[in-house]
Write a structure and sequence with these properties.
The model has no long low-confidence stretch (mean pLDDT 94). Helix 1 crosses helix 2. With 163 residues, this protein is an alpha/beta fold. Strand 4, helix 4 and strand 5 form a beta-alpha-beta unit. The chain is built from six helices and five strands; from the N terminus they run E-H-E-H-E-H-E-H-E-H-H.
Length: 163
């Protein structure tokens, strides 16, 4: 049987409890999960790529071990389908919160299928208790010195408190 390798891309700026929910559940679907931290040079991130990488290492290692899934972290700055191909992934994991996400993701699935027909996209719906969390909104709240403790793991709070 072929080893199932999943690729879960995102900016993870910052990593949220919603991201962790999708990662935990994706670990149950694949033998190996590669989390791809997208680097967008035109964006002004809240956290550096190195910080996001470190936060992901801190917050995902236990869940990968708990689910007996190999976990790897990579960065990428090009097309997501090419990054998935480069790491040998045959499944692309995408989290869904609501119909807005679904509509956007379905467009991406169509485009990705044209570019990489060998890759299958799997949608992982967010659990109800984290469905409302958006990294964009968390970033905005944090930039206005609001309380984001309900939306992110403690490692993110500790990092942002130092900034």
């Amino acid at each position: 049987m072929t080893k199932q390798i999943g690729f879960y891309p995102g900016s993870f700026d910052p990593i949220t409890n919603g991201h962790l929910d999708v990662i935990e559940r994706a670990c149950r679907l694949v033998d190996k999960l590669i989390v791809g931290v997208g680097v967008h040079h035109s964006k002004a991130p809240l956290t550096t790529t190195e910080e996001r990488f470190e936060l992901l290492q801190q917050t995902t290692a236990a869940m990968a071990a708990r689910n007996n899934t190999e976990l790897e972290l990579v960065t990428f700055d090009g097309l997501m389908v090419q990054a998935a191909r480069d790491v040998g992934a045959n499944i692309i994991i995408r989290g869904l919160r609501d119909t807005t996400d679904y509509n956007y993701e379905m467009q991406m699935v169509g485009m990705n299928a044209q570019m990489a027909p060998d890759q299958q996209t799997v949608f992982v719906p967010s659990s109800p208790h984290v469905r409302h969390i958006s990294a964009t909104l968390v970033r905005q709240i944090a930039q206005m010195n609001g309380d984001i403790s309900a939306f992110v793991p403690s490692a993110v709070l500790k990092l942002l408190a130092k900034k």
